[in-house]
């Protein structure tokens, strides 16, 4: 590799600027209670009808539905969420469930997962289990089974997640093909033989080529940008991690598992949540300390994901060592060779690696206001530094060096990254 392509510290790009920045302040405007009350009143019957329709579609009575307190659920769910679900499935009590997805029976789900056998278990979280299955037509699926919690909480989580997925449609988000409400709450998603990014990075004997890793970095960034800015309502995923990135046949990344996702009203700057949920190793400092959730929460987790793609290391290894804490000193010393996954040897595009490390170092900043937006991240990954021009160049040593090395003019593919 050309020595000129070795960068100085990516973390040092904004070091001086960060040092002189004001401490982060984050506030939220009060939601319009009168407006919310009006929406709750207007949509109360719609919400009740949706629950009734789900109940009628099941051939067997749902034990979980019998314990559902609709009024309590309505208070817990936002009016915007109810409106999305009502508009997606219809609101008339005498209509059938107008769903674009297949309603699987419990017998069908058992059949495709070998009765939810352990050998088909491909993922497990605090509140759900994910099983691999194969439909009669040969299509591979991932079946998410909500397995823990009180019955009414499981139902609320199911409705929340399916409501968000009803609103999401992007090449870099997972495709929901069905659901099941017999014997519990189930979501059925498309699955390719590649499985998740975690399984490919850590469970496969064959290591991912750098070109594929770079493609995954770009696609995941596009998916997050869509969630944050492309949807009709802002969606904060809250659980971006390697296990929640599915890979299509051509290794196109698809963000999945919206179980912790939050709607963020336009007039709010953030949510403040009291219930601690998420995956250690990916959690942003402001969430750990104050329960603050906004787009920058996802940006931090995405930065950790970028470090995983470069290093081949887990966000939290088996000795509970944090990848972020391990990588930060190496980023500051510009020890690129130590950061890059040894399995790649020298078979990688050093300019692309430098861009990914630069983006990662900015995404994992402790203060959320110092992190870039996902639109800025995409610009950086494509070698476009124009988003950094609002900062003085004399405070950006890495920017000056990168400019001298004509990194901004590097031929970085925008769609299909090349292999070395």
TrEMBL record:
List all Polar residues biased stretches.
23-41
Q: Where in the cell is it found?
A: Cytoplasm
Q: Which GO terms describe its molecular function?
A: ATP binding; GTPase binding; protein serine/threonine kinase activity
Q: Which domain of life is it from?
A: Eukaryota
Q: Does the keyword Hydrolase apply?
A: no
Cellular component GO terms, alphabetical: cytoplasm
Family from the record: Belongs to the protein kinase superfamily.
**Name of the molecule in the record:** non-specific serine/threonine protein kinase
Record organism: Trema orientale
